[in-house]
Hints:
The structure holds two protein chains of two kinds. By secondary structure, chain A is α/β, with parallel strands linked by helices. Helices cover 20% and strands 37% of the residues of chain A. By secondary structure, chain B is of the alpha/beta class. Chain B has helices at 42-50, 74-79, 97-111, 119-132, 137-141, 150-164, 180-193, 208-212, 233-241, 244-250; strands at residues 2-11, 16-26, 31-35, 55-64, 67-68, 82-85, 92-96, 143-144, 168-172, 199-204, 217-222, 225-230. In chain B, helix 6 (150-164) packs parallel to helix 7 (180-193). Classes of the chains: A alpha/beta, B alpha/beta.
Amino acid sequence: MALDDRKRSATEERLAAMQVPDVGCTGAARAAALERLRAMGLPQGRDEYWKFTRPDTLVQAEPPRAAVLRHDEAWMFDAVDRLRIFFVDGVYSPELSDDLSLEGVEIDRLEDVCCTHDHWAEDLYGTLEAAGQTPVERPLAALNTAFAGDGVTIRVTGRPSRPINLVYTHESETSDVFLHHVLRIEEGAEATILENGPAAARFNKCMEIDIADGGTLHHVRAQGRDHERRAVTHVFARLGRESVFKSFTLTVNGVLTRNETVIELTGDDAVAHVAGACLGDGDFHHDDTVFVTHDAVNCESRQVFKKVLRNGATGVFQGKILVKPGAQKTDGYQISQSLLLDEDSQFLAKPELEIYADDVICSHGSTSGAIDEEALFYLRARGVPEKAATDLLTLAFLAEAVDEIENEALRVDIVERLQTWLERRSG
Amino acid sequence: MLKIKGLKVDLEEEEKSILKGVDLTVEAGRVHAIMGPNGSGKSTLSYVLSGKDGYEVTGGSATLDGADLLEMEPEERAAAGLFLAFQYPVEIPGVGNMTFLRTAVNAQRKARGEEEMSATEFLKVIRAKAKALKIDADMLKRPVNVGFSGGEKKRNEILQMAMLEPRMCILDETDSGLDVDAMKLVAEGVNALRDEGRGFLVITHYQRLLDHIKPDVVHIMADGRIVKSGGPELALEVENNGYSDILAEVA
């Protein structure tokens, strides 16, 4: 696609001010990413894929200042025993992090990829991101591959006893962070990855996940309370035969969050579930952009996204299921719903199906609605006060998404966070 | 206990008068039945007493143990001891029946300044009460009323009543949609709750339910008023002759 001059010059101007970091043996991948980026240009407001979410603050040279919220409550996921890896404003912190040795898994820092000969991640870095650029361009992911300053590589060979928790803390009001993680789940291996924390004033994170045949990855993340931060994240997952990927994201607060999830089902009988629950208030803007490609037989995919919006908050959902020729027996499901707690909030949804196989089941639905008055009265008539009844119905609305978290302790932790958030907001 | 005096109610949106001066007193320990043809205002009375939106009280009063019901929020009425068994129990996807009941029981206790029921105690109590109503563990776990049959929904209402132990129970056409066996089960549940300190107002179209829940007083309601009151024999009269004779008589 030919790039128009305005976009080209804006992109070149932006890139001229940036320095590709020298991290690990990723130089070739970074150069290739830069080339990809130059060809597609950085996103602009008039791009079709950015119609509902303004990209300017994600693209401009300096991020808007973002106040740092002091950490005054228990860490997310404190209820579970886990291996924690801390990044402070995007820089790995060995002091805060736990010892990285854990049976059944190899964890390295991105910069260590060069110190080891034939590091497994060398060939993977940037690969899934590059593959995920068609049919829809994701320039901010290419930007990430080119400029990521830190990250980890995680190779799961067994069944580690603890989840691995990536924690992103935010200390500087002007931090501008690119993090890039590469994960490989080997045949039959299984792990859980947790992510939480506000990360930075501006956070661009990319996670490439390669799941071999029979591998399983559970991914649960909570996007933090720092309201002024801006975040764009990409997950690129490639699934082999009989593999399983289940991802859930909770987002509360944030003036701008765009979470892109790109999933390729490349082996038969694979299962991918991606779910999200978000609670937004005021100038909250949250965008879930999901693209699931079925390129094998008898695979199952589910997209379950629920948004609770109030006081003018905006929710966006762009979700697509693409069933390639030959991907017979595909079972695809997609639901995106919003609960609008007042007249000022809005939900913008673009659900899409594109199917080139004839023996498939694909369903999708998208709704916006208010609290069910009949249910509210029923609860109140049983003695539940109006606020508590509304909270209960709000949690019930989110349940289908939250129930996608298989691990009970993690699910309970998420529900408790939701409850706290709801209780904090009275009236 | 429940005192209704000259209660007049309009539909808020249509400016239509539904209740045109209802007088009714239910004493503790007694079961009153209200019968009447469709559109006479029976269900409206139950909704207005429990605090549903959409109605405007234009005159009269309703008190429970001397407290003005009409000034209270629905949840305050419930905490004060008023219970409405819904004609159409509402389905609430995503909220477990057990969670719902425990939230309700403890919200009422809290409102009354009583200690909340612990999870263990609650479980013990609910199991016993559910068993009597033939409500199995699965029904307790499922979301409130979702996928319940008509009979299951009504039994679930009675279970809620048994758990909440209200002072004043209003049953709005609890017999509708029930077969004979289900009606007997529901009636047994209600009868088990009959108590010196508790009043009942049973709203029904048919005399059938009153074979199982024996009323002390029967009222006939028509066109927004109670037009005749009497003993259980009044219900039999309705069953045998319909409403037209009584209505003609009072006209």
